[in-house]
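Lab channel / #folding
Pinned by the channel admin:
"Please post every new chain as: sequence first, then the structure tokens as a reply. Keep commentary short and put observations after the output so the thread stays searchable."

First post following the new format, from NK:
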Amino acid sequence: MPPNSRAGAAPFPAELAGAMPGLPDPADLYMALDLGTNSCRMLIAQPKGSQFHVVDSFSKSVQLGQGLEASGFLSRQAMRRTLNALKVCRAKLDRHGVKRMRLVATEACRRAKNGKSFLKTVARETGFELEVIAPDEEARLAVISCAPLVSPKTEQLLVVDIGGGSTELVWIDLSRVQKIERPRAIMRLKTGFTPDPSSPFPTAHVVDWISVPLGVSTLRDQFVDVDNDAARFALMSCCFEECLAEFSPYEAEQTREGFQIIGTSGTVTTVAASHLGLVRYDRTKVDGLRMTSDQIDKVINKYLDLGPQGRRADPRIGNGRHALIMSGAAILQALLRIWPTDRLTVADRGLREGLLYAQMSADGVLEDGVY
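Reply from TO:
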């Protein structure tokens, strides 16, 4: 399946940005649910200034896309696991009395031949009406979730969201935006990748974006028949790099000065936790951490030295991620081979946060302050 790429993407329709009829109460709770190829994630939050305060959360590895690459269908076991997780989310929603929400599904439900049928089952058994969002919207939501992590020194920004079934890359030129306005300019991309020429605010220029239909699950499944661990890793990394050939910044040489990559995914946060030596994961130490290409390479080489059994036993990787970490690391290594950087920023945030920002901003309950 070829990557999706289109720099001139249309703005979000108001209803897709999360706007709801009626005057919102600033005390209202909001819910965002992201059903991906590998995980089911949910956040319930309340607006707080230009950010939000998390009231409740849920994250579960459901492996919805397990076997999808080979069969084209969601398996019964995967759908059962996912339904059980969604029922937990439903209980939390009912407990908190949340009325304002956005519930989305991504690559697995986009690709599966029985994806629509499964979503009807979800609606029947949980009451959740999940919408399957397009890759360009998935990319935009990932970008705006990372706005608070954009450095005022950044002139060229690459946001990378490594998912279970796909990977989104968005390249943004901030060189014409005043330094103090750069995080806010990223947040304003919620209205679309094509800036509004009548807007009085500074705008970020999206040079190009791409959605590669390879994530940690789908890339691993393509090379599951390769026995040698190091050879499989090398093949995965080269395969992913080949998919970037049509991404316009692929041939562009970048200086490290003024260039920032923000990586949002379980792969990036796991690599960061390994770099810090965290046996127990601590989001406060990981989110916003900056790493160099050399530091990331050191962690990945350690993973290779450990081998499959060593990675399984390593508490910094964890039982839930050891089978997927090398496919994610192969994607990360390919990116750093093309664009080496001393400023890769680790983001423990993603689609859920983007959904919340978009809903709250559309409802007018977020202040336009410093992110």
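NK: Confidence is low (pLDDT under 50) at residues 8-20.
TO: also worth noting, The radius of gyration is 20 Å.
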